[in-house]
Amino acid sequence: MADQKRQSSGATTATSETVMVSTGTGTIDSAEMICGCPEPGPETIQVEQVLGADMKQRVVEFDMEVPDPRPDIEQVIDVFVKDVCIRSVDVIPNKVIVRGELEAKVLYVAERPDQPVQAFEKDHVRWTRDIEIDGAMPDMKATADVVVEYVNYDFHRHHHPRRVHITIVLKVWVRVVTTTEMDVYALSPIDQVGMVEVTSASSTDDLISGSAIVASTGNVFVTGPGLEQTAGVPLTVTGTSTVTANRVNVRTGPGTNFPVVTQVNRGDTVTLKDQAFGWYRVVLGDGNTTGWIAGWLLSGGGTPMG
Length: 306
Fold this sequence. Notes:
Layout: H1 2-23, H2 28-35, E1 42-65, E2 73-92, E3 95-110, E4 117-132, E5 141-154, E6 163-185, E7 229-230, E8 240-242, E9 248-251, E10 260-264, E11 269-276, E12 279-283, E13 290-294
Antiparallel strand pairs: 1-6, 2-3, 2-7, 3-4, 5-6, 8-11, 9-10, 11-12, 12-13
Helix pairs in contact: 1-2
């Protein structure tokens, strides 16, 4: 009986020693036997940090001729921008080159006795805009966005009865990000990969505030919204909107990798001032604080108003 007790006690001691080894200097194999999961270790992730962002206007001017055999123009009813898109974004030293295309449509009354309404279009109108970003280099990633800000036209029936001169003002946004590798330690098994909110700064050793995401490679080309804007009506973001969630970050720029200025909550009202990349520049209720909020966190976000 005493031997049986000693054997039982010995088995208990052996188990205790095994636990001590696994929590001290044990190997990964021993940890897996105890808890069924790998021992936590460093994971290397890529963190994007904003190098710079800016917006510039681009004025596009061109003539549109009535194609044969359509009749001459008696009166122009309106001019529409059917679509505007970005075709390429290239980074060169200290500058980003954005190239795109747009389509325009003219609606007019024909110079005929019955004065029928006619229309003609012009597509593949190319445009280019360069925007300076200090420190930008060709191996960095850049994103771009574009919206139509204004459309106007000139028509002189007695001089050119088949020609309309079009002027379109585009607002082009760009931002350049750098990618930094960072070692992180998982406190629990990782079962999924996605966007995480962390801190960011000029170096991984001096973290301040902001966010980071797992980075992808290559340029990202963002097409602008398909707009049918009426000539002579400036397309500006105005009015107010309501925040639809709690603890919504207000950031210094249009994206999750810009530092946080403050937070707002569900029901707060903000004044809309500008838009880019699906984000809105807003003025908060105090009338002084400005920043950017994601459009999907605002009621009615995503629809500019003239």
